[in-house]
Amino acid sequence: MDHFSDDELVSKITRIKSSDEYASYTAKLDEIAPDLTQADRNLQSHLSALLDEQRKRRTADDDGKLDAILKTVGASAPVKRKLQRPTSWTSGGFVHSKAGGSKQEDLSCKRQFEQVDKADNFFFDAKSELEATLEVPESISEDNLKKLKKAKAALDEGMSWAEDQAQLIGIAFIKYGWPTATEFEGEPVVATEEAEKKLKKARKVVAERLAKIEKDRNAKKPKIGDKPFVPKGGRGAYPYAQQPQQQEFLDCPSEFDEAAAVQTPVSPRITGRLRQRVGFWRTFASSLVVSWIIFGVPLTWISAPPPARFSANSPSAVAEAEFVSAAVAALVESGAAEEWLSQPAVVSPLAVAYRDTGPAPFFFTKITNELAARWRSQGAGLLHYLDDFLFIQRPLGRPFAAEQAAVLQDVADSGFLINQEKSVLGFQRLIEFLGIGIDSTRGVFFVPQKKWDSFQARLAHTLGRQRTSPRELSRLAGKIQSFSVALGKVCKMFSRELHFEVERHSSWDIVIPLSEEVAGELQFWQSVGRRQFEAPIWPVFVAFQNRIWTDAGGTGWGAVLEAVDGRPKQEARGHLSLAEREESSTLREMVGYLQALRSFSGFVQGTTIKLYTDSQAGWQILEKGCSSKHHLHRLVVDIFWECTRLGVSLYPVWVPRELNAQSDYLASIFDGDDWRLNPYWFRLVAGEQLVQPPVRHGWKAFGGSQAVLCGGYLQSTFWGQLEVSPRDPLEQELLRSMKEDMVSTRALGSWSSSYLGAFGRFARWCADRQPPRESCPASALTVALYLRFLTDRADSFSVVKTASGAIFAVHDVALVPRDLNPTKAELCKAVREQAKRKFGLGVRKRKAAMPVELLAAGVRMYASGDSKGRFSLFRLTVACMAAVMWVGCLRYSDMQMVWVGALRIYPTHMVFLLCNRKNDVYREGDVVYCARGGKWFCPCELSERLIAAGGLSGAVNLFQSWDGRKAVRDPQVPLSGRHIEYHACRREIIRMVAEGAGRTEQEVQAAFGTQSMRSGGATVVARKLSFEEFMRHGHWVTPAAAMRYVEPSTEERVAVTAGAGH
């Protein structure tokens, strides 16, 4: 099949638009437009006078005449708007492209055809409305009547010309294909008879070519089009030709039907039915949809060639090699593709899409939406998806027979055909639509039996094999999601594990075993019935017997039960575990929901409950029935099973915090004397795997408050074996204080953000095993299995490393001997080494050292005032902070400990005490000296100015935070008294350096950070001090650590090899 390029097509259309007929019509339209406007104005004036006269002597007999006049006035206004020439048109509506003139070749085909259709719509609508308006009173002047007749004749001539041009372009572009357009040469069509002669000649040439192609194709083996093609794997025929909605977008002559039938025989061609009835579509559809019906959906042309690219075929093409070979051969035979012998610029990969219809459903839906909007405007109730329509009879609407007749008539007028075999045209109360059953008698949606049986068969196959692939799991999840209309939020609740498992893998077709969580969800769906969960069609009003108000705080949860029948209120509260306190507020709220249900189980069993919460995140999770966070979703499932056990229906409602004050008060109560055992020990004692009690003297293991707050690792066997006399209070006090001090000296406080959270996750993982495993003391096998579990799910080695370090630290605090620590076992070392090789250690991108020139420019600008010359206290704070960090080689944590009361400024230098530096293991403290200089970034001078301007004294931070929003409006905003947060410190230093250097913040942030201050100062002083003085000034412990902060210059690096003799 031959194709035109953009240049050739533009040239042909330009020749059409430059014809004499076109110019003649344009001149006539320009000539009559003023006359028609004046005639319309005279007509309006005449009708207004007639209306005034009618108002003076109006009678009942004149009502009919008055109505006719009003209709005439209403119809003439659109005519005036139609005949006003659009300002964006030139020469009557089109942009000309003449030889030798300005370049218009870049006009796309889409733009040209849209303009032709626009002109066609213009003439059609103007002619129709003018004809409707010409029914005027007999008293109109003869002059105006002549002008209107002249305008009508001109419009008739223009309409005829537009139809001829649209016919020519339609022939060339769509109706009979590009082979016919190639044969159809010559000047624009003037006479219909001449056009028909050329058209017949062109079609004859194309028919001869097609006959030859068909003859050659039938001689080849195998005959692809003789029977339906079933690709490898039994997935069915290639779906493109089977989709009925595609037929409206395949605009080829009828002779192409047989050549295009590659995969399977199709129904008789119905191409052009909508185009033949475009008059009906014009009455209600948008101009865009009408243009699609006339000319088809335009393709987007690429103006510039894509970059050279050579890609391998996708795995789907390799798996379906037989199908791909047959499809390519069919494309070559039909002329849609050809063999290319030279080196191509782009090689696109081949892929097989199963049941993929591309963008066709989008355009088809846009077209059928116009019909749906028409029927809805007429009062019909319907549901619509692609080519499926479900009509709902309204109680007070039109009779069923009348509405059915109107709809069927519209379908026939539009050009669509009804599939009688798949359609139900009678009135039904029980029907299946889009795979969902609808029972209007009971008012519920349900899953059809056939669809449910197919799903159960797939479930049984997957569970029977105990192995599957991410693609199969994705299909099962999609199948479950398709039930959501009928089954409700339980579909999302019991399909999240399937989604989690699919997201863990990067390949669709690898074979994976069924995890315990995935198998649990599949077994759930295998055990329930299709009628067990049914969603109502109409809103259901529920009478609530109980109301529960819940809230959770930092350490506990609280709940209030209020019965509708007047029973006394019930209150409940409880403590959160140490691991739960470290989690998000949403998790704590959901733990409160679950604990409230368990606490009030004796009062709410078998009732309907309205649950009030002030957490929007928790309310939304319960409302949806799922969460994208794994730990939150598990709590949703636990709440579901708790409601199932109690036989309650739970309806969550969000309320503002002010209306939840009582449960908020209960959640904030903390009872230090509330001693309780960890539930894990109760489960362990009740289990069948008990060999000996893990605590020798359990009552002694809870002798101090830390034993409860530290979540269980002090209640270990080894602390229990430290026996003291129960009669000696001194020994008991010494043992208690020894535990607490040993925990504090091992820097337990520094674990809280990483180690305690990591060990809490390890403890929960151990508790979830069947039977549960001990987390402390843990066996080497338990730790190795957990590290392997993290290796399969983590993205970096740091996750495995942190977990191993947390387990080691907790066992070390619990006095487990080093040689018995499970993380030191060879098995655990092997797992860590495997994880390290899998992820790699990665490359640490260290920030560059801050050059003194950039720092000096930024400090000078900030210390001298803002952009308007006004003194700014917070800008002075940033300048002083950067200078002190650079000169003193301070980290951010060191800068936080610079107190005004521990700072002394002398004429020659400044000295301040840092009581607790990062590597100060024995808390000896460190004194930092800074000499006074004569430049802008002298820390002594800047500190004096900051203390004087801010009025700072005593035990307060020298560098304090401020209100950033107020500082923008008022530079004199006071400091807050609190230390500067890390993000504010980093942001303001970057902003200061960027402003001083005249660069963007993004450029500076990519190169420098807060550590750049420390490394910048260290790089400068390292060249001027002895090594011992350098180590003392920066308070480094090892030489290796110190040298990481020194950036050697290019000259120093080159000097190493300067004496090599080369």
TrEMBL record:
Signal peptide: none
Keywords: DNA recombination, DNA-binding
Molecular functions (GO terms): DNA binding
InterPro entries for the chain: DNA/RNA_pol_sf, DNA_brk_join_enz, Hepadnavirus_pol/RT, Integrase-like_cat_sf, Integrase_recombinase_N, RNaseH_sf
PANTHER family: REVERSE TRANSCRIPTASE DOMAIN-CONTAINING PROTEIN, RIBONUCLEASE H
Keyword DNA-binding: yes
Lineage top rank: taxon: Eukaryota
Biological process according to GO: DNA integration; DNA recombination
UniProt-recorded name of the protein: Uncharacterized protein
